Amino acid sequence: MSDRTADEALEVSADASGRPNRKKLLLLLIGVVLLLLITGSVLYFTGVVGKVLGRQEAEKPAATAAAAPPPAVFYDLPDLLVNLNTSGRKASFLKLSVSLELEHAEDLPRLQAVMPRIVDNFQVYLRELRVEDLRGSGGIYRLREELLSRVNSAAAPVKVVDVLFKEMLVQ
Fold first, then answer.
1. 16 secondary structure, DSSP code
2. Backbone angles phi, psi at 71, to 5 degrees
3. Cα–Cα distance measured from residue 129 to residue 85, given in angstroms and rounded to the nearest whole number
4. 167: pLDDT confidence band, cut at 50, 70 and 90?
5. How many whole angstroms separate alpha carbon 56 and alpha carbon 43?
6. Phi then psi for 115, rounded to 5 degrees?
7. Half-sphere exposure for 42 (CA within 13 Å, toward CB)
8. 58-110, pLDDT tens digit by residue?
C-alpha cells in the first residue's frame, strides 16, 4: 500500500513529458523535514517531551531550591572620620559610612569580637590616602578592594563578601 502512495505522489508531480519533477519533490521533502524539526523543538522546549519520556517535574523545584542563595547578612560599621594625607597646609577630611556583607549569619558575633582591629586597619589605611586617590570610579573601586582585603585579613576565618559604601564625603 505504501508503494501505491509513492506512485501516486510521483504521478501528481509529473510534468507534461511524464517525468517526475524532482525540484517539487525536493521542496516537499525539505518542507516536511523542517516541519518535523520545528514541531520537535517546540515540544522539547515546552517540556512535553520530558513528560512523555518519564522525566518528572518534581525534580526541577528541588534543584532550584537547593541552588537558592542564603539571605544576605549586613553589618554596619561606625562612621569613620579621618584626615587625609596632604602636602599643603590645607587639611582634607574623609567621612565614610561602610556596611560589610557577610557570607554566613553565624559569623556576626566573631566579626563583632574583632571590630576594634578592623577599625584600626581602616584608620591606618585611610589616613595615608590622598584626595587624588579617591577621584573617579577607579579610585572608589580600588578603595573598596583594599578595604575588603584588610577586613578579611583582620577577621579571618570570617569571610566578608563585600564592602558597601553608604556615604562618602571628601572635604
1. T
2. -65, 145
3. 6
4. very high
5. 16
6. -60, -40
7. 6
8. 555 555 556 677 788 899 999 999 988 888 788 888 899 999 999 888 889 99
In sequence order, the 6+-apart residues with CB closer than 8 A to the CB of 106 are none
Position 145 pLDDT exceeds 90: yes
| DSSP string across 88-106 | SSS--EEEEEEEEEES-GG
Which fold would CATH assign to domain 73-170? Tetrahydropterin Synthase; Chain A (3.30.479)
Count Cβ atoms below 10 Å from residue 110 Cβ, excluding itself.
14
C-alpha cell at 126: 585611610
Domain residue ranges of the chain, discontinuous segments joined by +: 2-67, 73-170
> What pLDDT score was predicted for residue 66?
61
